[in-house]
Every structure is written in structure tokens, then in C-alpha cells.
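Bench notes, bay 3.
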Amino acid sequence: MATELAPHLVQRAPTLARWLGQGKARITPSLAAETWCLPAEHWLLQARGFQALETEHLSAGLGPLRGQAHDDDPVWLAELIHMAPSRDGAALLPADTLAITDEQSRALLLSAQAELEDSGLQLDYLRPDVWRVRWPQPVRIPCASPALVAVSSVNDWWPQQTEARPWRRLVNSLQMAWFEHPINQARQQQGLAPVNSLWLYGGARASQLSRPLPDGLLIDERLQPLAAAQRWGEWLDALAALDAQCLAPRAQEPAPVLVLTSRERYVEVTVRSGWFARWHTQDWRRWWCSR
């Protein structure tokens, strides 16, 4: 939430600006060094009532949050990614930028079976973008969200623990096996980045999530990649479209609760209705512009 954008909100997103003025804000710090995930993921885990163990970072809850587990075993996930050299060592492109098809994912999983034989690990297909990882024994490996790694550096989050050694060996083997895989050759001919690695995350159990997400929850992520790239002109255009398409049609409905995220916090805004809210507006720019 860039400070310089606040003056433009009233003009470009009038419904949002009015709701912010009628709302009461609650600010929650969300530091990557503590949570190992993005503020938006932090809020989702809080909304699900996730309780991390003393040995876990908050990011561990992303396993059961996204893994759709029907058991109460630790839910470890492997996201299919593209890893590339960068000035800081290595950069990660997450699955939601790669357009991986069901056919491609299953073909890569089939080719991984030979590499799994000596690792003791098992990979189960969940969706084109993610597989479940099963370990032969319980492990405790701190792992960052792939979405967080994508906006920072692989080197900052690569698991170095002894317990992660089988995973590191497996990933190295898969990177070599997939380098000239027909799936990746076809992707490159189509102008798509190859799927050349996996990112491990999760590790918590489904029983650590105590409640469902709120009814009527609507998540719109169109602003996030533009903010991460600091493309603020496009961000304002996207915000105007979001206001017109999603917020304005709901202006006459019961007052909503808004959740806004930035790099190191999320803000929950409870919009108040009635004459008091209309006449006693809040200066939302104070918390919008605060660091």
C-alpha cells in the first residue's frame, strides 16, 4: 500500500474510499522473518484458526490449508516451480505463473518415480500445480511459502537442515531428469518456462485448523503482482476496475469487512453503516501511509 497512492483513491476507487472512511481498522504486523509466509497467507491461516506448534512457523499451516487432506498426518506439499539463476543466487517462479496442465503434471510425476526409489519419499498427485509429499518418518523442517520465496530469493529460504537432506537430493535428481524432458521441451517451444524443480512447504496437520473460512469470502488478487513489481500506474487502473466491477455493485448490501495486505502487515477494516458512520468518517490515510 504505497503512500503516494492514497490521494488517488477517492477519484479512482470511490466505493473503497467511502468504505475506508466509514470503517474501523485493525492492523496486524506480519513479518516474513517470523511467519515465513505472505501477509495474505497469514490472514487466511488466522481466519482458519490455525494453531502452530512451538516447533513450527506459521507457514506450516499452508500444508493442511491447501492440501485438502482427509487424514490427520502432517501435510507436506511440493509446488511445481521454475527456478532460474539471479543476481542473488536463484529466483523462483511459482506454479500460478506457469500454466501447468494436468497432463504435464502427471507426466512429470511419472518420470519422478525412478528418482523416488532411493529417497524413501512418496509423491502423490493432488492438482496440476501441487503434489503431496509423504515422508517415511516424522520430520521437522522449517519451510517458507513458495509465494514468499517468489518475491524474495531462493537462497534466503532453501532448507539446510540435516533432515532435509533426502529432499535436497531428490530435487537435484529431478532437476537433471527434467532438464530435457519432452514436456519441458514442448513448453519451451510454446514460449513457456520449463517446470524444473519443486518447492517443499507445509508440515502441519488438518486438526490444527479449527474453523472454516468466513461465509461469502471473496478474494481478489489482481493488485498483488502489480504491487510486487511496483507498477503503480497499472495498479491504479486495476484498482479502478476492481472498484467498479466488485465493490460498487455491493455498495447497497450489508456493510462488509475488508482485508488489505501489504509487505509487512494486513489491515482488517470493519465498515460501519448508518447515520453515525456517515457523519463521523475516519482518516484512513493515517494508517494507510504509516510504516
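Next record in the batch:
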Amino acid sequence: MNTRRLVAWYIAALLGTFIAISPQQCEAQNRISLAQFDNWIFQTAGRDEAQCRKGLEKKIELQFVRIEQSTPLTESQKDSLRLAGQGDIKRFFDRVNQAREKFLRMEQKDNNLHINEAYQLASPLQQELSMGIFGKDSLMAKATRHVMTDDQATQIQERVLEQSRAMMEMQGKVFIATISRGMAMTAKQQRGLQERFQKKIQQLAKLPDEEERGFVSRSLFILWLVEIIGEEDFPHFDAEQMVVVKRLENRANDAKPMLKLRGLLK
């Protein structure tokens, strides 16, 4: 094959490749099905609606187990809570169906080329499943507060406080271990902080809400760290360590209004 024929053959082959990839095929690559849309919603809860429903039904029963770690439930109380939990499930799937309808209208309107918009419809529902649909504002939570006797409510609250304090103590240990690496704390300094953190946590009349516990607890820990280091009987911090403390002091002062607003600081 001479050079001209070889060049002609190469150009023809290249054009054939371009022609083979039609605009319709490019669009098809950008399309998603309703099944894929559902998969985005349910990816952390069984991948499809049926599996998700089964999982949520099981979580209702697990709520009973959690409550009965604090106080026994009567069958009548369980029936009321189960009905409320099923109401939460229905409300969640009502929102899912609304999102599906919007997705299908969008697909009919513009051939579903705006994948980001579709994902924005699915993402809040996916997050709701991940966080749990039986939170403090759920029908089940409200029903729990309604059907509990005063003694049961007290026992549940004591259990919740005990678990929250244990969680916060663990977070405090992680905070101290993390910040000690940047400040080169001695073992004595770390132990001193852990002991004082534990005492302060036990003295808290109110604890951070579960939804924002990480951020709020860290703000409290920074404030406590700055206060504790200034105590006369606390192990001495050297000049390099105090440079870090001074930076943290500014963050502690910035956090005070937020902590006061949440009732965690007088």
C-alpha cells in the first residue's frame, strides 16, 4: 500500500470512528433511570425500596430494645410506638415519591441531562436515612414522650445522660490525644487534662445535642483546656506550648456566645 492510500485509509477510519459515536449515544451516557435515582436514595439502606422498608421496620423493634435497657414497656406502649414509627416510615416514603415525581417531570422536560439536579433531589433523602428517621422530631419520639409514665421518663433520661457522658468522655480523650501531639504534652499533662475533663463532664447539667455533639464538644474542650492550663496546681507548660495555648484562647473566646446560647456555659 503506497503512502497516499495509507493516509486515505487512516482518515476514513478516523471519520468512521467519529460518525459511530452519535449525539444520541452521548446523551444516553448522561441519562439515569428511575432505578438509578432510587439507588442514590437507598444506597445506605438496602439499595431498593423493599429492603429499605424492611430495615426501617426492624429499627422500630430495635427502638424498643434501646428503651427497655432503661425501663420495661407494656404491649400497649409498644403498639402505640410501633404505629407512630410506621407513620414516620409513611411520611418518609411520601417524600421519596414526591422526589420521584419531580425527577420524572425533569426527565420528560429535558431528557434528564441535568444529573446534578437529579442528585440534589436524592441527596437529602439519602442523608435522612443515614441519620435515621426516628430522631427527636419524629412521630415515634413524640409518641415516646407521650406514652411514658413519669418514672419511665426519668429512667430513660438518666440512661441517655449516662450514655452521652460516656460518649463525651471518649471524645475528650481523643481531643487530648490529638492536640497533645501538636503541643508535645508530657504524660503527666495529658493525665491531668483527662482527669479534669472527666470531672467537668460529670458536672454538666446539660449536654450537647447529639446532632451537633462533635462540634460543640470540641468548642467546650478548647475552652476547658485554656482554663485548666491557667490553674496554679496544673503541670507547667513551657513557652512553645503556651504559643499554641494563646492561639486556642482566641478560638475559646469566639466559642463562648455559642456555648452560652446552648446553655452549656454561664
